[in-house]
Amino acid sequence: MTSHLLTGLRPYGEDPTDILITDGTIAAIGPQARADAPEGTTTHDLAGLVALPGLVDIHTHLREPGGESAETIFSGTRAAAVGGYTAVFAMANTDPVQDSAGVVEQVLRLGRQAGWVDVHPVGAVSAGLRGEQLSEMGAMAASEARVRVFSDDGKCVWDPVLMRRALEYVKAFDGVIAQHAQDPRLTEGAQMHEGALSAELGLRGWPAVAEESIIARDVLLAEHVGSRLHVCHVSTAGSVEIIRWAKSRGIQVTAEVTPHHLLLTDELARTYSPLYKVNPPLRTSGDVEALREALADGTIDVVGTDHAPHPVEDKDCEWAAGAFGMTGLETALSVLIETMISTGRMSWRDLARAMSEVPARIGSLEDQGRGIEVGAPANLTVVDPEVRRTVDGAAQWTHSTNTPYAGMELPGQVKATFLHGRPTVLEGLPVERDA
Ligand SMILES: NC(=O)N[C@@H](CC(=O)O)C(=O)O
Ligand SMILES: [Zn+2]
Ligand SMILES: [Zn+2]
């Protein structure tokens, strides 16, 4: 029997208490925790720190197989643990693509071997992400990986017939289609948000309507089919309006916002540094305000990092040649503290809902996102919200250095993470399993 006694921490930022973890489960909370601690229990003094349920990322790119020069399942999941995560959904745009039972089972296995977080492979919607025929969705759902989230992320499922079939297909096992909403024709050659600034800088624009028109179509398809739609990385005020309308009609739609779209704006394109190049692009301060409001009022359900590591040669170049994407696993919680907690827009309980409970529910996980209660699996994140740190891309655990926050001071640090009762992070540092 392995036991850990966590003393003095504040669940959801509330009154300090003690938590006893025994054999992967929260065994006691409060005075009973010390009383029940068996011989040989390891005690961790975490006085004053905030405890949250282990974070769940609905949108991570781990890059393996095929993109190991940017990230591996090991390096990406270790970065996730350091960022406070206990589960990640690994996007399908790998090489080979995660479009068959064989590939998703391989990703599952590598995730288990690494042991930093639970890895849930996302299945591709279309074979090879080609947008032509459906992938082996049923086989992936029935595989050991039990795939429930399907996405062609990186590409939009553009063909409305294919989208309709995908939505119909996943109903059989309560799956969900996560759409990367980007009309490819309206965004050909696009480099940044379309607006006054793109005109001034002479960069081809990515108009808001290219996202909004796909979301509008997809919520109507989801309604027609009676299936579940999840919208990836919502980035415009207009998208928020459409999702708000869809929810008011009872359409089964959930939506995600990234940390970078909650904090950064298109003004950063003035630097011409590809570190700020991402898909969908950074938008205006008006969009940022609408996204914060939507996350606070629940129109946007969850935060997804869209952690998108890229090798240095794809970012250390001119803007037009740069790859789209930013890393985010190690900074997500800090950005959320900065934008939503410090501003009083969300409580710690709200944050736990958006970063743990609801992402777990969208992905049909039963042993994650359960909250801090006796009997729940001991997936916990312990954060010091008071520390302020300057982000250093080279000092992160991800294999890539394309963080847009380099040089910025952000609040908060994850001090400890527990995965099914085992510490994966202590004192802010990853703990090797055999240690
Ligand atoms: N977000 C990005 O800019 N890039 C992602 C793909 C995606 O999320 O659309 C990637 O895989 O690099
Ligand atoms: Zn995407
Ligand atoms: Zn993505």
UniProtKB/TrEMBL annotation:
Cofactors, names only: Zn(2+)
Pfam family, one: DHOase
Annotated active site: 306
Keywords associated with the record: Hydrolase, Metal-binding, Pyrimidine biosynthesis, Zinc
Listed pathway(s): Pyrimidine metabolism; UMP biosynthesis via de novo pathway; (S)-dihydroorotate from bicarbonate: step 3/3
Keyword Zinc listed: yes
E.C. no: 3.5.2.3
Residues bound to Zn(2+) 1: 59, 61, 153, 306
PANTHER family: ALLANTOINASE
This protein's name: Dihydroorotase
Organism this protein belongs to: Actinomyces slackii
